[in-house]
Amino acid sequence: MKAVVADPVGGPENLQYIDIEKPQPGPGEALVKLEASGVNFIDVYFRAGLYKAPETPVKLGNEGAGIIEAIGPGANFKVGQRVAYPMSRGSYAEFASVPAASLVRLPDYVSFEEGAAVMLQGMTAHYLTRSTFPLQPGQTCLVHAAAGGAGLLIVQMAKIAGATVIGTASTQEKALLAKEHGADHVILYTEADFVDQTRRITGNKGVDVVYDSVGSSTFHKSLDCLRPRGMMVTFGQSSGPIGQIDPLVLSQKGSLFLTRPSVPNHISERAELDWRTSEIFKWIEEGRLKLNIYKIYELRDAASAHRDLEARRTTGKLLLKP
Ligand code: NDP
Prior knowledge:
16 strands; single chain
């Protein structure tokens, strides 16, 4: 079968479109014929070697949707079922062997493209707004890169929770898109000081929570946007790692809370995965959650998708078509 691997790890030019052996489902796994694969920033980190993979060449892709073609012993699924999954590496391929514990059945009204678009960033937006800091009506959040893949979903789920949403974005077009998805205010953080703007919008009170996927260029200033005892959620680093933090800073800036969460700790129980996906699918069915697919690339063009994502050219979701 065809697959895209990083060989060796490095820049997008190291992505190779090659023939590899079709996987066989092991115990507790199902073989999925992929119809769509999600592109996420985590794929860039595995490609570049920032996140280490045990195998060589490095398999890429952590999200997919397709049809079950074969079942391993003990996997509670059936051949022919439509499924999608987050956080199982190797989805930049025609087939993937996936732990049944990560698979969810796709309702008829969710296409393969939508399924592959919503599993990883959708789980992320859900746990951030429902578990890490469960937003309530009357609360205000600051969402960086609000027009990005995770960003547009966080904005919408925060609005469903009844919160006021302040977003940041680098261009007018991205700001408009974030507003179209429900953001109440959007700050052009490449032009204006987002601390001043956030303070102005909140009447100098500060926000209850910051959801920060940007990292290096936003982390420290984001602490100044929070109300006393507010929560700083650093969950990504699209501008680079934030480095060392002195906990005393959290005291000086208002007894702040700081967390650095990730998806696997929020879907490790089947009941939790089912809760998050069922809410998300319901919101899609009701028309309350819109999936913004920026572009569908051919699998062989995965390097173009990575270049576009890293160059800040994209909004919403990027997919690969195996
Ligand atoms: P995005 O679609 O958000 O793309 C990245 C966006 O970040 C850009 O479009 C850009 O928006 C903004 N950005 C700001 N500075 C830079 C820069 N120097 N280079 C590139 N982009 C920049 O990507 P994802 O939604 O896939 O992921 C965003 C981050 O969140 C990643 O670090 C990812 O690993 C992380 N993440 C973490 C998860 C977790 O559970 N911890 C789960 C999912 C994602 P703008 O132009 O508006 O500034």
